[in-house]
Amino acid sequence: MAGKAALIAGATGLIGKELLQFLLNGNEYDKVVAIVRRPVEINHPKLDERIVDFDQLDQYNEVFSVDDVFCALGTTIKKAKTKEAMWKIDVDYPVAIARLASSQGAKKFLLVSSMNADPESPIFYPKMKGKLEEEIKQIPFETTAIFRPSLLLGERDEFRLGESAAAAIFTKVPFLFKGPLKKFKAIEGRTVASAMYQAAQKDAPGLTVYPSEKIHEMGR
Ligand SMILES: NC(=O)c1ccc[n+]([C@@H]2O[C@H](COP(=O)([O-])OP(=O)(O)OC[C@H]3O[C@@H](n4cnc5c(N)ncnc54)[C@H](OP(=O)(O)O)[C@@H]3O)[C@@H](O)[C@H]2O)c1
């Protein structure tokens, strides 16, 4: 056992659920703190589940005293209802987590962003993810790893019409997503989780951005 501690935000989500399994079942961490707003419904001796108020994260300073932080938080405009509410979840919470963890001495920060992240985009979602990345890059860690997956595949509790329609295209005509279109190939949440787990075990100081093709390769 390496004696390290990890913190995960988003452990009840598509990527987060898979990532939590890697963190708990791998040999790298002997403690895994999951900050959640509802229980993950898993019992595991390594799991330290903390139900927190994400609007008051600075009230839980001590939970951020870990080695490596994994952030797979996010929502949809349908759930959040307004752009402001979505921005709070997709940008403000991850940035608050990163700041608290950095100030508590965490060494690595691994973030799920999106393939189209672009702070200059005129479109809300890519702009929001681009701004998130910009803010995270300013926060000091020995290692910052940003993952930019394309459309995510996997079982969800909820139905997402647009994503399901797009996923059907990706799975029915996978041969389309070769050559220059390869980067658009949809990706399993589990593959992203696996790549994040692997990346955290590498000695890669500074910033590394993992595009979707690279995440596919790592998950193979
Ligand atoms: N969907 C795609 O195709 C796609 C593609 C590229 C990148 N991404 C990005 O990848 C990331 C992870 O995606 P995913 O599909 O794994 O996410 P997901 O299944 O929607 O899970 C999101 C996580 O964030 C938590 N969360 C949401 N609202 C919250 C709130 N108000 N307070 C506290 N926690 C909250 C959820 O907790 P609860 O379970 O309590 O709601 C859940 O743990 C997101 O940032 C997403 O934007 C998605």
Brief digest:
The protein is built from seven helices and nine strands, in the order βαβββααβαββαβαβα.
Task: Describe this structure as you would to a colleague.
The protein is of the alpha/beta class and 220 residues long. It has one domain: NAD(P)-binding Rossmann-like Domain (Rossmann fold, 3-Layer(aba) Sandwich), CATH 3.40.50.720. It is 38% helix and 20% strand. It contains seven helices and nine strands. The strands form two sheets. The chain has a seven-stranded parallel sheet with strand order 3-2-1-4-5-6-9, with helices on both faces. Helix 1 links the parallel strand 1 and strand 2. The model has no long low-confidence stretch (mean pLDDT 93). Bound molecules: NADP nicotinamide-adenine-dinucleotide phosphate (NAP). The site of NADP nicotinamide-adenine-dinucleotide phosphate has 23 residues, from helix 1 and helix 3.
